[in-house]
Amino acid sequence: MSKLSHLDSDGRARMVDVGDKAITRRTATAGARFTSTPEVIALVVADDLPKADVLATARLAGIGGAKRTSELIPLCHQLALSSVNVDFSFGNAEMGESWIDITATAKTTGKTGVEMEALTAVSIAALTLHDMTKAVDPYSVIGEIRLLSKSGGRTRPTIVPGTAAVIVASTGGAAGTREDTTGPAITAWLGERGYSVQHSVVADADVATELDAVLAAGPAVVITTGGTGVSPTDATPEATRAVLDRELPGIAEAIRARGLAHVPTAALSRGLAGVSGGSVIVNLPGSTGGVRDGLAVLDELLEHVVAQVAGGGSHD
Questions:
Q1: What is residue 17's predicted lDDT score, i.e. its pLDDT?
Q2: Which of 40, 101, 116, 249 has a 20 to 30 A CA-CA distance from 238?
């Protein structure tokens, strides 16, 4: 059995040190059940209680509770929550199911999970439901508070050697209004080097979601193209940084330097390179020239860095 993480070697309570953990996108969903009389549930559904806006008030309370979790639970870390959603569903009154199920999903990008925030959200929402309905039923029951799911963090897929993914960040390409020229070029380049390649084209706004999905399959290499500039929609570097355990700045700088030899605007590329779990990720620009320069750099480095990440020896 694993030891309790919040106890030190002497059995004393402690806050877990997460300083060395990777910054990743993390999500948790929790649930709870509020059980009352059929009459109360009917009144809540009809919004016909003396204290109006019951569900809206409970939803806001749950969100507020999630935001204050570290104040309520002593050993929780303070988190910058990116979103908290609280939803309600009702039992079938005709079947005698007089309950309200509460679910809350909390998200963050950080070094520790959001399970406690999601659990706090459903707990506070349930308590608020009791407070709002106790004049009609002071004996309602709160129960089945539990974690339903979580993602992100240290769970890593098994890397499949010889596999790669190419992600094209192009809103026009995803909509079919712009031809994808860079994706096929990268796919062909990887194929010539023996990789089995998955190739996808997504809108700039969907790069983070696609990157998460691609990494879940455990590719040895992920190469993105597009979305590395400074326009408001360019989001590839941000999506990439969120999943990296270690950056490889030398690769990104070498790609920029090679581009600068041809066009001054190569200096505007914000592309990154690094390692996520056992996957090597490299951002390339969205232009055919930028991709050509990037692949020329990778031609001398990719095999070596993939071997190192896979544990094939350490070299200076």
A1: 72
A2: 116
Note whether 138 and 132 are within 8 A (CB). no
Q: Are 140 and 34 a contacting pair, CB within 8 Å?
A: yes
- Residues composing the chain: 316
Look at residues 110, 151, 152 and name the one whose alpha carbon lies nearest to residue 23: 110
Measured between alpha carbons, how far is 221 from 225 in angstroms, rounded to an integer? 13
Sequence-separated (6 or more) residues with CB below 8 Å from residue 51: 57, 132, 133, 135
What global pTM score does this model have? 0.59
Catalytic residue among 131, 137, 212, 316: 131
pLDDT digits (tens, 9 = 90+) for 195-251: 999 999 999 999 988 998 899 899 999 999 999 999 999 999 999 988 888 899 999
The tokens of 117 are what? 């925030």
